Amino acid sequence: MAEIINMPRLSDTMEEGTVAKWFKKVGDHINEGDILAEIETDKATMEFESFNEGELLHIGIQEGGTAPVDTLLAIIGEKGENISNIINGDFSEKKENDNISEITKTVSEEDSETVIPDEVEIINMPRLSDTMEEGTVAKWFKKVGDKVNEGDILAEIETDKATMEFESFYQGELLHIGLEEGQSAAVDSLLAIVGKKGTDIKKIISSLNKNQNSLSEATQPISSEIEDKPEESLPVEQESKSQLIETKINSNERIIASPLAKKLAEEKGINLNSVKGSGEFGRIIKRDIDNFKLETYGSKVFNPNEPKGKESITEIANSQMRKTIAKRLSSSKFSAPHYYLGVEFDMDNTISFRNQFNSLPDTKISFNDIIIKACALSLKHHPEVNAKWEDDKITQHHHVHIGVAVAVEEGLLVPVVKFADEQNLPQIGAIVKDFALRAKGKKLKPEEMDASTFTISNLGMFGIQEFTSIINQPNGAILSVGAIVKKPLVKDDKIVVGNTLKLTLACDHRVVDGAMGAQFLQTLKDYIENPLKMIL
After folding, report:
1. CA 20 to 30 Å from 343, out of 189, 379, 385, 411?
2. pTM of the entire structure?
C-alpha cells in the first residue's frame, strides 16, 4: 500500500519548507533510513530520511520548490502501484484535512473576538521526526514566571526516536505551561506560552482550549474527559455538585471525587480512601490519582485496608522509545527467518593480550572492544554477512558500521561505531564508553544510531553465559556475547583450567546461508583466539 510522505515540520516555527536537493528519483528503490532529500527550513538545511520502504512512485515538490508543512512531498509504495487517485487528491486523508481546515476556519470565526497580542507567542508540540504523532515532555528547564531568551532550552521532548532538547525561538516571560513533565500530547498541541510579563492570558488559553476541543470532537470521536486543573492554570467548566461522586467507604466515612478520578482509581485498583484530595473542599481529582503511586507509596499500588497477600500490580505507561522498540523487534522477528549458530572460543590468549595492552600508560580496553574490532575485521573478509535483505536484491556492505546494543532504563539503544575496521582498539573503547554514558542520559543524536550494518549485543557483564538476540533490521545478522567462564578444558590431551566464551550468531536466512555464517565465525575465532593478528 502506498505511503504518503508530507513536508515535515522540522522546527517549531517552520511553516513551509524548500526542497534543496533530491537524493532519489522516481523509480528508485527506497530502504528505511535512506536519505530522500535535503529540506531547507527557516532555521537550517537538514537531511530528511525515509521511514518507509518501497519504490519512489512520485515526487510532489521538485528541487527548489517550496510548500507549506504537511503538503504532499513524495509517495512510496509497491512497484507499479496505481497512485493516480492520490495524486489527483481524491483520497480520505486529504478529505479529512479539508474537513479539519473547514472546522478550524469555523472555530476561528466563532472566536474572532479573542485576539492574540503581538507580544504573546504560542508554542505548540513540534513534529521532530516524520513519524512523530505525539511527544512526551521528559523535563522542563524553565518554570512559569522565568525569563526566556531566544535559544534557551525550554524542555526535553521524547519522540518515537529519541529524547531531544527543544529550544525557544522567542524572548519574554514563560506565561504558561500546557503539559507537565511526563505528560504526552499530539503534535501541534499547546506546549507553552511566552510573552510580555504581566500579560493576561486566560482568554487566550480558553480560546485555544475551545479550538482544540472542537477539533478533537470533529476529527477524533473518542470519548475523553478533561483533566482537572486549577482555574488559574487552565479554565475548565466547573462541575456542579450533582456531578460530584460521593463514594461511601464505611458507615462513618465518605469521600468526594470527580467522575474521571473515580474511573481512573477503579482502573488502577486504587482505594479512594487512601488518596488525599487536592481539589476544592478536598475533592479528589485526576492529578491526585496520577500522583498517588509516586508520592504516597512509591512505585507500588498499596491499599492499607486490604489484607496481606492481596494481588497488586504496577502499571507503567509505554514510552515512545518502548513503543518503537516493540514495533521494530516484532517486525524483525516475524518477517526475518532467524536461525542460530553457537560457538565457544578459548579466551586464554585474549586475556593475556588485554592485560599486556592495559599495562601501557593511559590505556584501557575491554573484552567488548576486542570483540568489536575482531568482528569488524572478520566482516571485511565476509561481506555476505555484512549485508541486508531487500525485496529485489541483497545489498552487501564493504564498509563496516557496527551497532552496539546499550541497555537504558526504558529499553535498548543501538549507537553505531562507524568504520569500526579502521579504528584501533583504544579508539573503539573511547567511542563505546562515550556512547554508553550519553545513552543513559538520553543524549544520543539520531544520526549516531543510524546506518548500522551489523550488531553486537553483550550480556556477559551480567553473568549471562549464553543467549540469542533478535536481528536489528535491516542488518542481516547479530552476535550475542556471553560471559567469560573458567572451566576444565582438554589441551594437548591433558585436562587444564582454562577460560572460554560462548557466542551465538543469529542470521537472517534470506541473506546469510548456514555455511556463510559458519565461515564468518571461523574467521572471528582466529582473530579472537590470536588477538595479535588484529594489530599486526
Report:
1. 411
2. 0.49
